[in-house]
Write a structure and sequence with these properties.
About 35% of the residues are buried. The chain is of the alpha/beta class. It folds into three domains: about 200 residues, no CATH class; about 220 residues, no CATH class; about 240 residues, EAL domain (TIM Barrel, Alpha-Beta Barrel). Helix content is about 65%, strand content about 10%. This is EAL domain-containing protein.
């Protein structure tokens, strides 16, 4: 095997392994338990942000400000802040436990029939595990120290509730009563599933308390965690183990810092405990690994050294959604609150960002430990709060500018480590988004085929999320006039170009050209389809004015307008304004009415159509066939053109019935005085067959696909103007 072949082989092996890892993480991420943990933690972000904001306000390091808080109104402001903090961060474990269990119950309500059983079970398990029945219950168990217990309490019913439910359903008739309120019966049906779970939990807690001698399961976890980390102790390797463990838990969607808070307090006490007493006695502080060391140098911006991640996204990501999340997360990260970025980007179960998310904090830890150990940067001398922003924290904690300089070095190194992974993540997200886009298009097309209306933005999966994201970008594109009009030429039987259909196109920065019916559907769902169609009219009128300026025979532009829009009185006023501002030549603009089933056949509609035609605009019916709906509109309204249903044109060569229907429409056009145009004409044989039955106007790939305006101008310039129009 040559070196080239060997290189290709290992490249192929690497790509295969990479894809397998992606598939593994994707499969794990789709697990209901994992999804519930991630989404549940997202739901607690408001509580975390409120608590963080209060904490920031409480700990602003200005002596006059702190004095004001303590003295004003006998400390009333400080008391209010404490109340809010205790009700948010002080009860964080409870909120997380309720959020995770509630999310799972909500997403699986069809499976369980109730969304209350699982949260009730989780609450009961949590109180059992925290030792609520004993004398050793501590309120701190409800806060950050109890987060791990809260997550476990939420996961247990998620995993086992269905087993209890299945057993309960077999015996349901024994517990339910005919004629009793259905809510009573539902409540009774939850008894056994709840008992099925809480009895083993109570048994486990009893074993931990009476058999092992701990005060509760919560206390047992903290002691075991302390034991695992105490083997390395407060050493360099112990610090690495701590950084890895907390960051890895964050990657799994678990608040690592809170889960292992008890371990941190035991293994890495604060500077107040380790260094301040030495300083007060006139000694030289020497303890490097204090709690503040990790807060200042490793948790800059939050877990994963999030400030580095934030800067990497700002400078190196090309995706608007990623930069948008970064903008929202910027202020919280300034105060070391990273939840929005971690769950919004997301980092959780993201295989591409796993390496830098774990690696950057460890590398930052090594850099900080090295510079402090050699004396380049002083050890931490003051106990500062974890919400203090970067650079300020480094300066105040060390009483030296070198603390801030060290933070800057770690920030720079970490940002550039994240850089290549952010680029790869962008590319992978675009690939995945294109797959979801195709799924979204397939869903729309399938429902169109069976005439079923579907609300794409209400889909509760990745398709729905993509639809909402596209909707936001479409609004922005319309506002900034980034949408384009393409023109598909129309020819008569003499091969002269006599007009074109104006077709709206949107080229997304990352997803490319968006399927036009999807674009229309999203605008319709969001209620700005009229604005979209008005944009098309204004642009098409402007383009035709430019094209027809020196032409003897004006080209005609056909513009699609929905039936709902054209019947709106405001649209009629809009057309009046357009005709006054622009020199609309009579017959140069033809409004094609789509979705005829929504068109009313009454005197008011006839009057609207008459006024529109009086202003110089022509009217056409799109996708005309010999069905009852199509004929009904010809009976009561005067249209200038009908465009044949594409299925008739495509089948005219092999289906005699299709040919007969087209022939009948042509005959009807002579009687009622309208022009017939065939779309989807792709071959010369089709055109000849259409001409034989009297259809003399064509549009389709035989002549040209839809092309940009500049190309359309070149298209008509190559074809000298002759007398002719759509007739």
């Amino acid at each position: 095997m040559s070196r080239k072949e060997e290189g290709m082989y290992w490249t192929m092996v690497g790509e295969l392994m990479y894809q397998k890892i992606l598939n593994l993480f994707e499969a794990i991420e789709k697990l209901p338990v994992v999804s519930s943990i991630r989404n549940g933690l997202v739901m607690t972000i408001p509580i975390v942000l409120i608590g963080s904001f209060i904490l920031i306000c409480k700990n602003i390091p200005i002596e006059e400000y702190q004095s004001f808080l303590s003295s004003f109104g006998n400390g009333v402001i400080l008391n209010i802040m404490n109340y809010i903090y205790d009700a948010t961060f002080g009860m964080l474990a409870v909120y997380i436990m309720l959020a995770i269990s509630s999310v799972y119950a909500r997403d699986n309500i069809e499976l369980y029939g109730s969304k209350y059983g699982i949260p009730l079970t989780a609450v009961t398990c949590f109180f059992i595990f925290t030792g609520v029945s004993g004398n050793n219950l501590k309120l701190t168990s409800f806060g950050a120290l109890g987060v791990f217990t809260g997550i476990v309490s939420a996961i247990i019913p998620v995993l086992f509730y269905q087993y209890g439910k299945n057993i309960s359903q077999k015996c349901y008739y024994k517990f339910s009563s005919v004629g009793v309120d259905s809510n009573i019966n539902k409540a009774i049906s939850e008894i056994f599933p709840i008992l099925f779970i809480i009895f083993p939990c109570a048994s486990i807690n009893a074993f931990v308390v009476q058999g092992l001698g701990y005060s509760s399961f919560q206390d047992f976890f903290l002691q075991i965690a302390n034991l695992l980390f105490s083997q390395e102790g407060r050493s360099f390797l112990g610090g690495i183990c701590w950084v890895f463990s907390t960051t890895f838990l964050w990657f799994l969607g678990v608040h690592g810092s809170n889960v292992l808070e008890g371990v941190a307090q035991h293994l890495f006490p604060s500077t107040t405990v380790l260094n301040v007493p030495v300083i007060s006695m006139g000694g030289i502080p020497h303890e490097i690994l204090t709690k503040e060391f990790f807060n200042i140098y490793i948790l800059m911006g939050g877990c994963g050294t999030s400030t580095c991640l934030l800067l990497a996204v700002f400078f190196f990501s090309k995706r608007k959604s990623s930069r948008g999340i970064a903008k929202i997360a910027a202020v919280p990260i300034l105060f070391n609150v990273s939840e929005i970025l971690i769950f919004g980007l997301p980092i959780v179960f993201n295989p591409i960002l796993f390496i830098p998310f774990i690696g950057v904090p460890i590398i930052g830890y090594c850099i900080a430990y090295f510079f402090v150990s050699i004396g380049f940067v002083p050890v931490i001398m003051h106990d500062i709060h974890w919400t203090m922003p970067i650079f300020f924290s480094g300066y105040f904690a060390t009483e030296s500018y070198m603390g801030a300089v060290l933070q800057g070095i770690i920030l720079l190194v970490g940002t550039f480590i994240y850089r290549p992974f952010i680029r790869v993540y962008d590319a992978e997200k675009i690939r995945i988004a294109k797959n979801y886009l195709q799924d979204l298009i397939d869903t729309l097309q399938k429902n169109e085929q069976i005439n079923k209306n579907i609300i794409l933005t209400q889909l509760q999966d990745q398709r729905g999320r993509l639809a909402k994201a596209l909707l936001v970008e479409l609004k922005e594109a319309l506002k900034e006039k980034k949408l384009k009009l393409f023109y598909q030429p129309q020819h008569n039987h003499s091969q002269q170009c006599v007009g074109a259909e104006a077709l709206l196109r949107w080229e997304n920065e990352f997803l490319g050209m968006i399927y036009p019916p999807l674009m229309i559907k999203l605008a319709e769902e969001a209620g700005f389809l009229k604005d979209l169609e008005k944009f098309v009219v204004v642009r098409a009128v402007h383009d035709m004015e430019f094209i027809n300026f020196n032409r003897k025979e004006p080209l005609k532009s056909c513009i699609n307008v929905s039936a709902i829009t054209i019947q709106d009185t405001t649209f009629e006023k809009f057309l009046d304004e357009v005709s006054k501002k622009k020199s609309v030549q009579k017959g140069s603009i033809c409004l094609e009415i789509t979705e005829q089933t929504a068109l009313c056949c009454d005197e008011d509609t006839e009057a609207v159509f008459a006024r529109i035609r009086k202003r110089g605009f022509q009217l056409a019916i799109d996708d005309f066939s010999m069905g009852h709906t199509s004929l009904k509109y010809l009976q009561v309204n005067q249209f200038d053109m009908v465009k044949l249903d594409g299925t008739l044109v495509k089948k005219i060569m092999e289906n005699p019935r299709a040919k007969e229907i087209v022939s009948s429409i042509i005959a009807l056009s002579h009687t009622l005085g309208f022009t017939v145009l065939a779309e989807y004409v792709e071959t010369e044989n089709q055109r000849v067959e259409l001409e034989k039955v009297g259809c003399l106007n064509y549009q389709g790939y035989l002549y040209s696909p839809a092309i940009e305006f500049e190309e359309f101008i070149r298209y008509i310039e190559k074809r000298p103007e002759k007398a002719g129009s759509i007739k």
